[in-house]
Each structure stands twice: as structure tokens, then as C-alpha cells.
Design goal:
34% strand; four-stranded antiparallel β-sheet; DNA-binding; 11 strands; cytoplasm; 249 residues; DNA binding; Enolase-like, domain 1; RDM1 protein; RDM1_RRM
Length: 249
């Protein structure tokens, strides 16, 4: 049976493993990651100290992107010692045990990590269509009656993700903003500009990936679908129209 993966933070109970019976040791989360990542790509590994009533030791919450990988890891690792002397207890979280959280978009780094894992480093590409400065200024009065001009840097970015082997193309838009306290300091201005540009590009890349679905088949092959129920303006515009739309004169 095929499994559909979205570029979103894993939130389903079937994607989450609860591991307990962990012994205190340096690099515990690293040891968990090394042992469980053999079964599939992990989104996160978090180790926590047991509550006082539960006695000494730790438990951990592991999130896989794939519920199929989580199930395989649970069956293989439950009751095994792996990296410690005593055996671990591993279970797939039930709906009652799952840690409820809103479904959030993956950040751009996690999107790239997921795409690389299932499509390969050369299986997809991205490009910036346009990156525009849409900044404004906020005037603030100082106590001495002088006017201090604080610059608000704001950039709007449009990115296109292409998956050529599957004929999929997706566009996303991202907006980022930050204040520059001392706009007369060239170094501070340049540093803040680069930071805001990078953040806008990252948001746009994440936005583009949100419209892509990875369909993992039983034989391990991956199909890709474009799934956007409501098109954003960037999807239906040409590059020239998109650049003109956000061009600041």
C-alpha cells in the first residue's frame, strides 16, 4: 500500500515512537538517532528525564516522516539493548499517547532534507524567480525631541521548485522583515539585508514544497504529485508578470 508524505512536520501518532527504559549516558540523543535512523529518515529525536515518580532514567520521543518506517523500527528495536546494557521498550504512540500539535510546514532546511532523501540530491532543483526589496521606514521620536529614523528591511521572494523526472513544478512566495537599529552603520545594514533575504528565500522555498506530495510505493519507488487546492497568485503568473507585481518603484 502506498504512503503519502507531505512536506509538513510529522504529527500523526503512527509516525511517533515512544522509547523508555533509557539509561543516562553522554550523547543519548545521538545514540538514539544513530540506532533508529537506519530504518528511515527521522524528523526529530528528543530525550527527556523521567518524572520523579517513575524512577531514574530517561524516555524519548522519536518522529519519523514515514509511519511505515516507524513501524519497522518499533518491531526491530523493541526489547533490544542496542547501545546500552538493558533492553529498550519501544512502542508506536496511540492516539491517547501521541503528543498533539498543530500541523506545521517544514522549514526550508527540513524540506531539502526530505527531498534529498526520497528524490536524491540531483532529483530536484530550485531557483529564485525574483527577490525584491519592499522596505519602508518607521519614524520614532527620541526623548530629546530628535527624530530617529529606524529602517525596516522587508524582502519578498518568489521561488520555483522543479522535479524534472516527474514533470512537477511548484512556486512559492515568502516575505521576511527585520528592523535595523542603526541604518547608518554599513556593516549592520549589509548583515541585516543578507539575513532578511535568506529568510525570505527560505520561506518561499518552504511554500513551494507545501504543494508537493511524495507517494512512496511498496517497492520503495517514489511518485510525485502536485497538489494545490487553491492556487496562489504566483502559480498562475508568468515570470514577467510576477516580477512586475512585486516590483517596487
Amino acid at each position: 500500500m502506498a504512503e503519502v508524505l507531505e512536506f509538513r512536520v510529522p504529527a500523526a501518532s503512527a509516525q511517533t515512537l515512544l522509547v523508555w527504559g533509557l539509561e543516562a549516558a553522554p550523547g543519548l540523543e545521538h545514540s538514539l538517532f544513530s540506532a533508529f535512523s537506519k530504518f528511515g529518515l527521522l524528523y526529530s529525536v528528543r530525550a527527556h528525564r523521567n518524572a520523579a515518580v517513575a524512577g531514574p532514567g530517561y524516555y524519548a520521543v522519536l518522529k519519523f516522516y514515514s509511519s511505515r518506517d516507524a513501524c519497522r523500527a518499533q518491531r526491530a528495536c523493541n526489547g533490544q539493548r542496542l547501545f546500552q546494557k538493558s533492553p529498550l521498550k519501544v512502542c508506536v504512540c496511540t492516539k491517547q499517547k501521541a503528543f498533539q500539535m498543530p500541523v506545521l510546514a517544514l522549514n526550508s532546511n527540513k524540506c531539502q532534507e526530505l527531498a534529498n532523501h526520497y528524490l536524491g540530491f540531483n532529483g530536484w532543483s530550485s531557483r529564485i524567480i525574483t527577490l525584491q526589496n519592499v522596505s519602508g521606514f518607521d519614524n520614532e521620536n527620541e526623548e530629546m525631541g530628535k527624530t530617529l529614523q529606524k529602517q525596516s528591511l522587508k524582502y519578498l521572494c518568489a521561488v520555483e521548485v522543479t522535479i524534472p523526472n516527474h514533470g512537477v513544478r511548484s512556486r512559492g512566495v515568502g516575505l521576511a522583515e527585520a528592523n535595523v537599529e542603526n541604518g547608518e552603520d554599513p556593516l549592520e545594514f549589509v548583515t541585516a539585508t543578507r539575513r532578511v533575504q535568506k529568510l525570505a528565500a527560505g520561506k518561499a522555498l518552504s511554500s513551494a514544497f507545501q504543494k508537493i506530495l511524495l507517494v512512496v510505493l511498496d517497492n520503495g519507488k517514489v511518485a510525485v504529485e502536485y497538489n494545490c487546492t487553491e492556487e496562489e497568485p504566483a502559480d498562475s503568473l508568468t515570470e514577467e508578470e510576477l516580477k512586475g507585481l512585486i516590483q517596487v518603484n
